TrEMBL record:
Organism expressing this protein natively: Rhizobium vallis
Residue ranges of domain Peptidase M41 in the record: 80-244
Molecular-function GO term, any one: ATP-dependent peptidase activity
Cofactor: Zn(2+)
Record-annotated AAA ATPase AAA+ lid domain positions: 24-63
Keywords per UniProt: Hydrolase, Metal-binding, Protease, Zinc
Entry-linked InterPro entries: AAA_lid_3, Peptidase_M41, Peptidase_M41-like
Stated name of the protein: ATP-dependent Zn protease
One Pfam entry name: Peptidase_M41
């Protein structure tokens, strides 16, 4: 009689572990953009709140703490963030670069996306071109929906434009995919200085970026219903985990 009981206990433990993992994933998405110190303080305050209520800590306690740590995002800005991050997600999925693990526009400082990459396709020319397309998809989405773009794609060394520019420059100078002397390995410590000195190189790099931007826009136009649905859902929820994003992305999937 003990075997079924042990089996039931193992099933219950597995279900509980799965539930905890799902809660942690949701919280991780909601907490995008926060520092470790922020999260530590929020958890401490949530525990104190639960203790005062003489109950166990709940998911809502931590979520409320995260939301309370951030100022509300203005309506128009929230739509821009939603379009931008939905653009990245739709193109990332369409080009089969890997999973989209979460999206967040609840920070007040811009949107965040958490994505993974399939290792079997990396390091080819096609993969780099797909990456450029994905990096510029947020800008393409803003142009498509708002008819103008913000500075949100650039302005920092870790921005979409900075990463795409470095990648396109690497394709020309160090990865063997260049239009001129592709077999020469020419490393560069300061991409901006290199591009400023060499107008022809800058033109080739910019042409790669323009092609990627146009390709991203074409994908978003072709997948307009999916893109619109994801942007609307993200605008409403402000944070979406992998399951919620995938449900929309795979509804009526089309080939790239």
């Amino acid at each position: 009689m003990t075997e079924p009981q042990n089996s039931n206990t193992a099933v219950a433990a597995g279900q509980q572990a799965h539930c905890i993992n799902e809660i942690l994933k949701r919280l991780a998405v909601r907490a995008m953009g926060l520092t470790g110190a922020d999260i530590e303080r929020i958890v401490r305050e949530a525990r104190l709140k639960a203790r005062r209520g003489k109950r166990a800590i709940r998911y809502e306690d931590i979520e409320d703490g995260i939301r309370g740590n951030r100022p509300p995002v203005p309506y128009n800005l929230r739509w821009r963030f939603a379009f931008h991050e939905a653009g990245h997600a739709v193109v990332h999925h369409t080009l089969d670069l890997g999973p989209v693990r979460g999206l967040n526009i609840d920070t007040g400082e811009g949107g965040y996306n958490l994505v993974g990459f399939h290792v079997w396709a990396t390091d080819t020319r096609d993969w780099y071109e797909n990456m450029l397309t994905m990096l510029l998809a947020g800008r393409a989405a803003e142009q498509l929906m708002l008819k103008r773009v913000s500075s949100g794609s650039g302005g920092a060394d870790d921005s979409d434009l900075a990463r795409a520019t470095r990648m396109a420059l690497d394709m020309e100078r160090t990865l063997g995919f260049g239009a001129e002397h592709p077999l020469l390995y020419r490393p560069h410590r300061d991409p901006g200085a290199v591009l400023d000195r060499d107008a022809e190189l800058a033109a080739r790099v910019h042409a790669r970026l323009e092609a990627a931007l146009d390709r991203a826009a074409a994908i978003l136009r072709r997948r307009r219903p999916t893109f619109n649905s994801l942007a609307k859902a993200l605008f409403d929820a402000q944070a979406m985990d992998e399951g919620a994003v995938l449900h929309i992305l795979t509804d009526g999937d089309l080939p790239p």
